């Protein structure tokens, strides 16, 4: 049996485009002599379709797409992922299953439903789907396929999250191969995890395993591809490319030996976290614009490292000619900030404009003079600058059809070091899941072949430049310390006590954690953040706003 | 046995305050001779504690609070709700149970875990909790109590959401009374639903039922109280007040007859939706400020009905002396808008300031002249006005410590008729779950005894006043039509085709639904919205941003 794996980029709710892509791939695979082509989990609808799944019409359109695909699927079989009505609804349960259709001879031959439904981090599958409790292998071309969906293989032996393990039941039917269709989002450490847990399954059940993932971004969620093929010893036979679409072919012999039909170059070593984050962010920006029907980005360029990195990433994702960098100097901007920003624009070849904001902030201060008279300069005047810049950038969006890129990093977003409706604005946040220390690594990576980001933007002390001689270090610990505390609190959910026990200064730890918790109301209103870590702000981290607990 | 029901207002993560309130209530109930006092679901932590539940320290503090309460609980028993470690974790499952502790003689005597975990709308209980599958009654003072938690009784006979029904299993142990502790959020139609489904349980199992709910708001989620007592025929014996804290007492005889120990006045008729919404919003505003540690609100007063209604509600919630209304006229503001706003300020007696924004928008237009020269006036200039107002209001927040109240209504929020970082700003949205047609009803209700909101604000055609002679009806259908289409789409999840079949104009329906879907990126960044309907924007409605499906 010849098996094709289709690692493709879908678009949520774009039935025409998804269906066409699937049918074209079926035709291509048949042309190459494949007997079976495997698509990813919920490829018909795109993932995550969220509450679109609560619309009956949406589910009807999914079924209609599946029938169109089935009609095209003759002389070859395929496996597609689809949200499907729970036909056993009379005894209770949610309306839908997260299903796989096995299609052959122009018809849906068999339906397999997902049993283990992830409902943590960014996942909400219990919101929509009823878990399956019965399991049947798919028989095809003399093979017995144990077909499962993503999380169904994702139950750690050491620390099980679910009480059942679908493969244990499927093994009673003596399958000779496993196929798993997935929607497994990118995080910089997730590729190793995926390989380890899937390899463990191949070994445990002594079966070869074909695993197909999505690639492409859906708003904040990035899928990195990296689909996998294992032999029955759990050895990786093929690892598909990351961050791009690809179709690959394998021969599965009668005794379940797998032979790739194209040259395979297994990676000699894993990509670094920063290389992965770099590729993920570029795909994230590109798909956000492409799938929203926009082409051009705008951002404020301060001369600092964050906006410089965002500008460079946007230029790579969209083409420098589609990036408008706006310099918005105030009376507190230093001369080197402006020249650093200008150097970057020249290095990238992107568009640029300069809009001075002094006359604008003066107008605000004059208008507010009756109310503010006699009161000292404080955060109100600082924020006026950040907000005036945002209003200018948004006016240019409204006039010319740009999308504003947010340039806040994760460290700032964590401690609320940013102005709501000011530098926290944007259609999408590029660095909101990248700690400041990682932003430096990204800048150096972007400069790996030649200086794109001016060295001065990298080496100078970070500053918001909202008052004379301001530096981030005036009010925050150094970023190495800050980021370590933040990782322990946000990623590892340690308490302040536990972090202090690691040797960090008590006052610093308590202050940082208080800042994180009291900035919750700000983060609630920020743009979607491209997710590159195992714990990003947004749907994957849901915190109360008026809660009192400060750890 | 004498049973006390404690319908209280908790604060998420405020262990000191919640524990003290519970202990004081135990002492008070013991003083009144009660044998058992019943508190609400997850009262120890507050509800919903969301991802605080992922912090081990948080769960430890819950347990510590429970032990403190247990120590105080002698000479009386109590039932409290608490998130508790899943001690059976070795066989798999989530870390926590949503539990009830039965406490007597200074110790936790029995633990009951929730079986049916709501994971729809605003609920995410599968994110944290493992469902229970085994059930045991609580024995106390010669009674056998079937103790369940909220959703455990919430499984419709006609259309079951869950495959099991905990009470069916508990009935095998022949209980003589049911107690249900709940965290059932307010929606204007939810009181009737609650009474019907609980009455149905009392009848079906032929047992009296004591039901205790939360009261008070946690950011956007409002709990309305309305705890209930039923006899074994499903007849309401007592309905506790809505929107306030109360403790009530009942005698439960050996043959399970229930006698209230205080005068009971059953409501002759249900409160209207608008009365309920009015009370809910006032409680929502008040608790948002109180629990955040703020006292004073600010809002922009346009002379229109939305900001007038928000101002009146804020004055009632916080006291007029704590409300700052700012008039922000532009060159497009009509004279009557200013006088209408001034009349309202006088009627309420709140603070007010006037800040002209013409010089500010002029400064923006001058600064952007090089970029905008020769291009026609459009949405860019319209939004400059809305955003300039927001910057002024936020500057006053930063200077004086106000929280900005958002004044957008649900109809506007739905179709994206509002400016991001402009009139869509605020700490909390008061009317974001109230359709425009309901805003009119609210205004009339506020004026029920005397004219508070100037009649002119109610009767004049709605306008954003962002260009000369602008009216909402220039670009939107009339609000009766708009709101009906929105309810069908948002609340009932009908497709455009189904709505058109009801007789609505096809072009209008398609345009409205397209507006709703393309405004998703705006709503993502708006403040939390006080939830008063069964389907509010926010955590209860999770939509993709880059999705293509338009219904």
TrEMBL record, chains A, B:
Pathway field: Cofactor biosynthesis; NAD(+) biosynthesis; NAD(+) from deamido-NAD(+) (L-Gln route): step 1/1
Any GO molecular function: NAD+ synthase activity
Coiled-coil portions: none
UniProt-annotated binding residues for ATP: 300-307, 407
Sites where the protein binds L-glutamine: 120, 184
Gene3D superfamilies named in the record: Carbon-nitrogen hydrolase, HUPs
Enzyme Commission numbers on file: 6.3.5.1
Annotated protein name in UniProt: Glutamine-dependent NAD(+) synthetase
HAMAP family: NadE_glutamine_dep
GO biological process, one term: NAD+ biosynthetic process
Cellular component aspect of the GO annotation: cytoplasm
Stored CDD domains: GAT_Gln-NAD-synth, NAD_synthase
Role this protein plays: Catalyzes the ATP-dependent amidation of deamido-NAD to form NAD. Uses L-glutamine as a nitrogen source.
Signal sequence bounds: none
Keywords linked to the UniProt accession: ATP-binding, Ligase, NAD, Nucleotide-binding
Protein family according to the UniProt entry: In the C-terminal section; belongs to the NAD synthetase family. Belongs to the NAD synthetase family.
Originating species: Mucilaginibacter galii
Catalytic residues (UniProt): 41 (proton acceptor), 41 (proton acceptor), 114 (for glutaminase activity), 150 (nucleophile)
Domain (CN hydrolase): residue spans on this chain: 1-254
Matching Pfam families: CN_hydrolase, NAD_synthase
Residue sites binding deamido-NAD(+) per the record: 383, 412, 522
EC primary class: ligase
Reactions listed under catalytic activity: deamido-NAD(+) + L-glutamine + ATP + H2O = L-glutamate + AMP + diphosphate + NAD(+) + H(+)
């Amino acid at each position: 049996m010849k098996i094709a794996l289709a690692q493709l980029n879908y678009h949520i709710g774009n039935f025409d485009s998804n269906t066409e892509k699937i049918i074209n791939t079926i035709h291509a695979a048949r042309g190459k002599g494949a007997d079976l082509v495997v698509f990813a989990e919920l490829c018909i609808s795109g993932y995550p379709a969220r509450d679109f799944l609560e619309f009956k019409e949406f589910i009807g359109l999914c079924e209609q797409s599946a029938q169109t695909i089935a009609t095209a699927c003759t002389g070859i079989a395929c496996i597609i992922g689809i949200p499907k009505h729970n036909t056993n609804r009379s005894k209770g349960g949610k309306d839908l299953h997260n299903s796989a259709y096995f299609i052959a001879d122009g018809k849906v031959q068999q339906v397999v439903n997902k049993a283990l439904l992830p409902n943590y981090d960014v996942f909400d599958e219990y919101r929509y789907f009823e878990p399956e409790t019965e399991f049947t292998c798919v028989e095809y071309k003399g093979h017995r396929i144990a077909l499962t969906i993503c999380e169904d293989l994702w139950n750690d032996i050491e620390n099980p999250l679910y009480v059942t393990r679908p493969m244990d039941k499927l093994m009673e039917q003596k399958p000779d191969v496993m196929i798993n269709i997935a929607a497994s989002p990118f995080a910089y450490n997730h590729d190793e995890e995926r390989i380890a847990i899937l390899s463990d399954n191949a070994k445990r059940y002594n079966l070869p395993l074909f695993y197909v993932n999505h690639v492409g971004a859906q708003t904040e969620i990035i899928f990195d591809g990296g689909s996998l093929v294992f032999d029955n010893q759990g050895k990786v036979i093929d690892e598909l490319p990351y961050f791009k679409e690809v179709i690959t072919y394998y021969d599965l012999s009668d005794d379940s030996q797998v032979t790739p039909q194209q040259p395979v170059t297994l990676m000699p070593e894993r990509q670094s976290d920063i290389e992965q984050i770099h590729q993920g962010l570029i795909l994230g920006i590109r798909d956000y614009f492409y799938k929203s029907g926009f082409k051009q980005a705008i951002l404020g360029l301060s001369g600092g490292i964050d906006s410089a990195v965002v500008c460079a990433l946007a230029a790579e994702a969209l083409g420098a000619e589609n990036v408008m960098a706006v310099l918005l100097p105030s009376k507190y901007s230093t001369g080197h900030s402006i020249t650093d920003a200008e150097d970057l624009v020249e290095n990238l070849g992107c568009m640029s404009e300069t809009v001075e904001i002094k006359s604008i902030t003066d107008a605000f201060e004059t208008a507010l003079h009756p109310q503010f008279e006699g009161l000292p300069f404080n955060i109100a005047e600082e924020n006026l600058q950040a907000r005036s810049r945002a209003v200018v950038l948004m006016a240019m969006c409204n006039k010319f059809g740009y999308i504003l890129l947010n340039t806040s990093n994760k460290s700032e977003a964590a401690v609320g070091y940013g102005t709501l409706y000011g530098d926290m604005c944007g259609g999408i946040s590029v660095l909101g899941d990248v700690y400041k220390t990682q932003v430096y690594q990204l800048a150096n990576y972007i400069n790996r072949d030649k200086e794109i980001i001016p060295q001065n933007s990298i080496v100078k002390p970070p500053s918001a430049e909202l008052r004379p001689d301001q530096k981030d270090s005036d009010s925050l610990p150094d970023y190495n310390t800050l980021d370590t505390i933040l990782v322990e609190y946000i990623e590892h959910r340690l308490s302040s006590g536990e972090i202090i026990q690691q040797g960090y200064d008590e006052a610093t730890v308590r202050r940082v954690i208080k800042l994180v918790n009291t900035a919750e109301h700000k983060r609630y209103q920020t743009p979607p953040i491209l997710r590159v870590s195992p714990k990003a702000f947004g749907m994957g981290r849901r915190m109360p706003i008026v809660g009192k607990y400060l750890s």
